[in-house]
Amino acid sequence: MRPLRLELKGFSAFRDPQEISFEGLDLFAISGQTGSGKTSILDAITYALYGSIDRVGKQVGQFVSQGQPRMAVIFEFAVDDERYRVARSTPAAKGQTKVLLERWDGGNWTQAGEGADRVREADAAIRSAVGLDYDAFTRTVLLPQGRFAEFLVGDAKQRRDILTELLGLELFERLAKRTGELKRSAAAEADANARLLETEYAGVTPEAAEEAAAEAKDAAARDGALAGVEAAVRGLAERWAETARAIREAEACGHDAREAAAVAETSARSLEGIAGRISGADQVVASRAKAASEAAKNAGKAEKARAKAEAEWGRAADLGALRAKAEALAMARGELEQAEADLAAATHSRSKLEKALVAAEKALASRLGGAESALTSVKEARGALEEARHADLVAAVRAGVRVGDACPVCGAPVASLPKTPGAAGLEKALAAVAAAEELATAVQAALDRARDARETAERTLASVDRDVAALQKELGKRRGDLAPVERVLAKAIGGALPADPVAVVDGRLARLRELEEAEREAAEGAAEARDEATLAERDRDRVTAELGAERARLEALVAGSLFDRVRAVAGVAVPEIPTLSGTEDADGLRAAAADLAGVLASLASALDRRAATLAESEDLVLAEAARAVEGLVQPAASLEGLLRDLAEERRLAAAAAATTAQRVELLRERLENARALAATVAGGRARTERFEMLAKELRADRIVAFLQVEALQVLAAAGSKHLATLSSSRYRLESEGDEFFVVDTWNGEERRSARTLSGGETFLASLALALALSEQVGSLSVTEKARLDSLFLDEGFGTLDPETLEVVVEAIEQLGGDGRMVGVITHVLELAIRLPARIEVEKSPRGSQARVVTG
Predict the structure, then answer these.
(1) Could you give the C-alpha distances from 595 to 94, 255, 581, 599, 616, in angstroms and in order?
(2) Which of 47, 83, 601, 853 satisfies CB 3.0 to 4.6 Å to 261 for a cystine?
(3) Domain segments of the chain: what residues?
(4) Which residues, including other chains, have CB under 8 Å from residue 782's CB and lie 6 or more apart?
(5) What are the pLDDT digits (tens) for 535-589?
(6) CB 168 within 8 A of CB 785
(7) CATH class of 1-141+819-855
(8) Do residues 299 and 564 lie in contact, with contact meaning Cβ atoms separated by under 8 Å?
């Protein structure tokens, strides 16, 4: 199966209609940002072919674009010389999936058979055309994320099932069924022959054959007697027939001689114009040969100019790779400039933050002094308040007490009454405390804000310091990475690195294309000149061929049977035949043709005279034939009539002899048939037994199991070659039973299960096995339909180091050059630009767009 064209609408990230043409693509990448819809292109292919998507199975409605009523996919693909188109759509809400399978037939798309517009029948027809079911397709042709390694380390039964379908081993299941049918057919045929022997051949015995032979002998004797009489009369007839033949031959030779004379005359007239045409054709051939030589020299010069440019700059592919490096350098320079700008901005921001921190610390120091003063004022006000409260208490106790009265506190007589400040002093003290506490609260809030400002400034400055350090480290790394790239480009360009390497490389590419175009035009001119020279030579050859045809016509007249036939006619002398030797040019040949025409005309006249003389002897022969009859039959008016009468009598006798002889032959044949039929019955019984034994052997699946094991071993051996290249000769693959193993040559030839490989190693081993399967499936299959014309890879390239990635790319390039289509889904720019073409997927709020980029 080879993809040709894909149309999508409302499918996953592809909201708007998209069309992707795969025609002309052999090795290409599908690239784009994460989430742009690269994998959705492969999902669309599996959905179109099988109505299923690896990530959701049959629940494909989840792939309808947000807000769209349904999704639709049209997929065109080729299988050998057949071209198919499948259209499939599914609604977002509940509803039926629609499908239509069509085949390209005589310039038009026609429905591919009855039921090709119904899901079940269309799915079966697609599976038959592709030759793979969904599981085999997603493990051997289209390898989606998460299933890349399943053929290597997946379920053994599924692996055998895939091999059975991929290699056409179901053929042996059909053979088992067919063998059973043949056994039943052989048994039925043997029974039918036995019944036929008992019914149709009853009475066919050797005795009946002997009786029929006696009757045939009597009929043959009568036929012999009549044959003798007929022979005597026929001898007389043959004597006259010789004379009649001589007359007819003379007349025929005369007629042929006249026609040959006419042919020679026509040839002489035709040869008059051929000479001039040959001379003109020779001049045209010489002129065009000279022009072809000049055009060939120009083509050689153009080729040398192009070769010189390639020797100096490299081929277009080399310049393309160099341009990719130049683009990468420009991108790296831009990133370096951006890093420098980011560092300058961070440094400037840090200076401002340092000033802000100094100001915050000064403000905090100022607020600390105010806070201490406010706390002192609060303490003093609270002390005054206590004093005021004590005085107010004394006044309350003193109320109504006179000198000499008992003290209400201690009971002693009161000697004198203390003075009291009154209620006004207490209120004043309370007001002073409230004012001092309010001021302290305000000062504390200001102090808290100053502390928060300082902490914020400290945290921000620390963060900026970390950013500056990271930017300085990144800037150093980018500068270190940039230098070797610049050196490589300068060396490749052949001198100092220009300000715009991309422009320099583009200039060389443009010049190389101009030289290639000039070479192509010169080659086309040379080819056109050669074609014109060839046409001139063909024109000359046609005229020469006409001359040869005229010579052949004349030679046929001379070398034909006419003159030999004339020699057999008695009484006619054969004239001297003109010779054609030494007449290579048209003029000489024309003169010889005129001489030949005259000789043939004279010969025709002589033959006519001889035929007239022979015709006069017919009456004498008829009289002699009448005397020879001697009354055996009724007299006849002519010799032919007498022969007819004798022939009729002989026919009746011969018919009787033949009838009896035929009956003898029929009886003998039926007797042999009966014996052969008996042998056939015995052979049919033996054939039935052989088919029964073969059916039992095929039903045991021994052949299929053997071929599956052999296929796994062949795949392991072929995969080892790729894995040795991909793993720097560390690993090789082996197959034992239903499992794959790896041999670690770096670890003492340790043999272990392929399931023990790391993620990266599993990727390399799986890729090696996928490449081997794509290469070997044609030779392993027992049918001609198993061929993997396409391979899509969607996993693992971003985890490879540059050296391993280079080896993987070379392996993929080699596979793509073997006539297969190889597509690689990747976000690794270096891999994408290495491949001859790519399908770029760009995402946007409206939906993703896909475009094919070549060159």
Answers:
(1) 98, 19, 14, 6, 34
(2) 601
(3) 1-141+819-855
(4) 167, 168, 169, 171, 172, 707
(5) 877 887 787 787 778 777 777 776 667 777 777 776 777 777 777 766 667 777 7
(6) yes
(7) alpha beta
(8) no
